[in-house]
Amino acid sequence: MxxxxxxxxxxxxxxxxxxxxxxxxxxxxxxxxxxxxxxxAAVGCMPSKALIEVANAFHRRHVFDEFGIRGGEALRAxxxxxxxxxxxxxxxxxxxxSSTREKLGRRAISGRARLKGPNRVEVNGEEIEARAxxxxxxxxxxxxxxxxxxxxxxxxSDSLFEQKDLPRRIAVIGxxxxxxxxxxxxxxxxxxxxxxxxxxxxxGISDPRILASFRPMIAREILLHLGAPAELAATQGGVxxxxxxxxxxxxxxxxxxxxxxxxxxxxxETLGVALDARGMPEIDPTTLRLGDLPVFLTxxxxxxxxxxxxxADEGHIAGRNAAPDAANLPHCRRTPLAIVFSSxxxxxxxxxxxxxxxxxxxxxxxxxxxxxxxxxxGAAAGLLRVHADRETGMxxxxxxxxxxxxxxxxxxxxxxxxxxxxxxxxxxxxxHPVLEEGLRSALRDVARSLPAKDGSDLALCGPTGHExxx
Amino acid sequence: MxxxxxxxxxxxxxxxxxxxxxxxxxxxxxxxxxxxxxxxAAVGCMPSKALIEVANAFHRRHVFDEFGIRGGEALRAxxxxxxxxxxxxxxxxxxxxSSTREKLGRRAISGRARLKGPNRVEVNGEEIEARAxxxxxxxxxxxxxxxxxxxxxxxxSDSLFEQKDLPRRIAVIGxxxxxxxxxxxxxxxxxxxxxxxxxxxxxGISDPRILASFRPMIAREILLHLGAPAELAATQGGVxxxxxxxxxxxxxxxxxxxxxxxxxxxxxETLGVALDARGMPEIDPTTLRLGDLPVFLTxxxxxxxxxxxxxADEGHIAGRNAAPDAANLPHCRRTPLAIVFSSxxxxxxxxxxxxxxxxxxxxxxxxxxxxxxxxxxGAAAGLLRVHADRETGMxxxxxxxxxxxxxxxxxxxxxxxxxxxxxxxxxxxxxHPVLEEGLRSALRDVARSLPAKDGSDLALCGPTGHExxx
Lengths: 470, 470
Prior knowledge:
The structure is a homodimer.
Chain A: E1 2-8, H1 12-21, E2 28-32, H2 39-43, H3 45-59, H4 61-67, E3 69-70, E4 76-77, H5 79-98, H6 100-104, E5 108-110, E6 114-115, E7 120-123, E8 126-135, E9 139-141, E10 154-155, H7 157-160, E11 169-173, H8 177-188, E12 192-197, H9 208-219, E13 223-226, E14 231-235, E15 238-243, E16 246-250, E17 252-255, E18 259-261, E19 295-297, H10 308-321, E20 337-340, E21 345-350, E22 361-367, H11 372-377, E23 383-389, E24 395-402, H12 405-417, H13 422-426, H14 436-447
Parallel strand pairs in A: 1-2, 1-8, 2-5, 8-19, 10-17, 11-12, 11-17, 12-13
Antiparallel strand pairs in A: 6-7, 7-8, 9-18, 14-15, 15-16, 20-21, 21-24, 22-23, 23-24
Helix pairs in contact in A: 1-10, 3-5, 3-8
């Protein structure tokens, strides 16, 4: 059998690649092993965000008395009902993508694909030749093999949302973005949560000052054991977790140690390109092409930027580069943006502080604990730091643990993408009273380290009063 | 007596003007009648936002059952405690600005100023000569004189937050931004609220499609009587309000018919400049100067853009133009931005749809009722419309009634201020799952009416893969 293009994997990257491929040809196969549809909708961002929404709504009762709302102490979270609600919402979001399979008919194949060279794929015992191959096999949660013996006392993000109820005590191993989000949500729903991590970080925060701001806030809600690998031992009906600062006996353990690209058994070694110790080839993020081959490795499977919006871009780029008449079409990647949906939210935009040479850097910060709208909400709020080029004033990056970080981060991402300076951003309107005024304070703080300007955020206008002179 | 500069009014515009004046001279007087400090902090944006925060927190109980949170039906709002909480927060915000008076000592005068010509001000029976005069006398709620007889049954935003308790039924007269915000907050706290307006609009919405989206949502919470002037008649202990669609008997009436510039009795007629029928001179928004005189009219007092952030800009501009050696320094004004803190929030950015010639306009929209994060929150969500130049793709304006409109509007305001095109904005990162993805959908909808592009949001890169070709 021979087709123009084979796509392996029907998640976000595979489906956006398919969209591009279909602009050129209907002679394709989409091969998928296991669940059809995006990781995000099924077990990733969507159910976790639904759980966080409920957890935060329930947590809000702690400000009720200060607000003058009575009866909050009688509220309780009905965990089986909460989980059923999360699944119901999730199933609504999943419905769309998974119907792709039915629509494609015989061009959709369920089975595990394996490369047999740059133009050959084997699936379900059959070898198929293809002019181009797009790999989008995704990732799966890391769970140490030694933990297999703990059976259903080990949860992952794949199984958590399928639970009918939750036990009283959960240890979350891995305090990255997913670990922190879920640990906090579970704690807010009334589960006792202990969080372990081999390293001393939280939620992927790169800036030590943001970490120092966030840590005491999250420590009020979960027991933190950071800085030593966790070890598990079975107890009567539970698991004893040993890590930094002592032991914790849990009823279940959530493995949140990251996700591993699904490249084992994929046959990348048959392509003739160099592979590193993990079996991963070198990735050109602007084409996703492997060497000079008509083979593309996209999405979580290449480990480059394992985020849904990046996976969509990578499927798009690979699909365009895989066209029969495509010259090499290197595409610019977007300004890096990462958001953690904790409370307060964490976000990083552009370059991390450690990536900017200190001699080039002008930094400013603002503590949102002082911000009026943040104070009104009664929610925890930490630090925002913004970095710009010391000479040009061009925004380079920011990191924050503040309310509505998801929104402030999108504003900053647009600013960085458009090569905006601190002064340009200060010329935009900041309404009152809004959280964005805290961003303005941080920008003014940066501006104090920049070459002096004429003392106004506003540009001078032409004589009509309606035209900028620039 | 003779000084360099007199500032009349110690609100937002007056205080930012003072900041600029002090860069040049310490020979000034600040004259203020009544309360010292900003309208916003004392009786405007701050207490209303605090009330809205509590009202929304209480209203959230309606999604609790669906979320799996039990006991929400027993929650109740303790109105006297809610009002006390609002005042406590408010008093914290007010503390700062009002201390200005003490710091200025004899240069701060309490009294009502009246112009006696372009260089003369009378206050407390004394005439003072000044090289420059900055007027920043603010505004006050409009209350028809005929309503004086209803006594304390008439509330305004000045008196509402001073109440110890609220009656069972309140009629809000005037459904502009302030009227809608407060009416909805009171309704969410359990007050029965009827909203009246002489016109058929709501919350200052300019786009009929946004109005059509918002109206049914707000109509679920307050009784709407739109399209005819309201008339009041006393009843036993209450007020009978007659308006469009019938009568409503209320225990109190909140006058929310807008605010009137405080220019009566100010002596503007002594300046020799032309005044319109309301007694208002022509305003140059880029200088705030009246004619060629050393007199400036700023902030709410000129009625141009009665918003806190605009008042701050106007004080700043006037202060700079009032300097002894100042050439004429016309300053560009910021992209217009207006936000109403209702649920869903309403915002308008840039040009209103009616201001953009139809032949020039490409429009797109997205209904946030379909947006995943909006659906997860269980909150009401309406329409976003975005307008661009049909030829260049440059963003011109947007209006919306959606959750987090305050944040989406800031993003769009930056985009418009920076002359960004629809394609530029689509090249920025949109995370997942976030409300900003709904904005992206609206932008893609606009793009369908624009000249075709090459089918990618991403620019092509140079051979290094890290440099844009543009």
